[in-house]
Amino acid sequence: xxxxxxxxxxxxxxxxxxxxxxxxxxxxxxxxxxxxxxxxxxxxxxxxxxxxxxxxxxxxxxxxxxxxxxxxxxxxxxxxxxxxxxxxxxxxxxxxxxxxxxxxxxxxxxxxxxxxxxxxxxxxxxxxxxxxxxxxxxxxxxxxxxxxxxxxxxxxxxxxxxxxxxxxxxxxxxxxxxxxxxxxxxxxxxxxxxxxxxxxxxxxxxxxxxxxxxxxxxxxxxxxxxxxxxxxxxxxxxxxxxxxxxxxxxxxxxxxxxxxxxxxxxxxxxxxxxxxxxxxxxxxxxxxxxxxxxxxxxxxxxxxxxxxxxxxxx
Length: 314
Known about the structure:
The chain has 10 helices and 11 strands. The protein is of the alpha/beta class. The chain folds into 2 domains: 2-168 and 199-229 and 279-295, 3-Layer(aba) Sandwich (Rossmann fold), CATH 3.40.50; 173-196 and 232-276, no CATH class. The strands form 3 sheets. Strands 3-2-1-4-5-6-10 form a 7-stranded parallel sheet, sandwiched between helices. A two-stranded parallel ribbon has the order 7-9. The chain has a two-stranded parallel sheet with strand order 8-11.
C-alpha cells in the first residue's frame, strides 16, 4: 500500500514512518520543507509547504492508497484570536483540503489523528467512550472536533483516532517533567493521590493502533479512542515511574489539595490540575473492532520512556 504521511517530521510522525515502512508500505512523507530533514530521511519525502486550505497536494497524492494525517500547528503562547485563526487554518481548512484532494486522487482510506481534548479536559468518575458528547474547551480542541467531522463525513474511508497524552523515549510534556523530577526526588514523596484515574498512550502503542486503522477494512467510518490500557491514579503512575527508574521511595498518600499545592509550586498550576482530575478513556471499541492490543504493556512502556538520550526514531 502507498501511504501519504503528514506530520512526518514530528514526534509521532517519525515513528509512524518507520512502522509503515517496516510493515511493507511505501511511505510518502509530506513535510513543510526538505531543508528541515536530515539527509537520511529525505528519501520518499515530498515538500508541500504550509498546510492550509490552499496546499497543493498533487505530487504528494500521486498513486496514494491511504492517508495518515497528523499535522497540528504549534499554537504556543499566541493571543486567543491568533490561536483560533491558526487552528482554523491548519487543522480545519488544511484537513478539508487534504480530504477533498485525497478523494479526487482515488485514495481509499483517510486516518486522522485527533486529540482527547476534543471531548473536553476531564472524564469524571466514568471513563470516556466514543458515545460521549464532545465538550471542547479551547480553540485547538474545537478545531480538532470540526476536522474530525469533516473526515468522517467527506474523507474516503475516514477514520478518527483520539489520543490522550502521548509519552515515550525522548518525549516532552508533563509525563517527561514528572520522570525528570523523580530521577532526583527525595526518598519520601507526598505524591500518592489515589482519587483520580488518567489514561496515557506510549508513542509505539499509538503508532501500532494507527497502522491497524490504515490497514483494516473494519476501521472505515469509525471513531476510536486509544490508550495503553487500564487508567491509573496519580499515585500509581508515580510508583510505575519509580519502578522503571529503579528507584526506591516511599510514596505517601495525600489529599488532592495538598498534591495540587506541591505540584503547582514546581510544575505550575495547569500541571497540578491535571494530576488531580480524572481523564480516563475506555478503548474497548478499537480493541474489539480491529483485534488490536498495545504491543507494549504499561510497565514496558514506562521502562522505555525513562531511558535517557536522543529519540531513536530521529
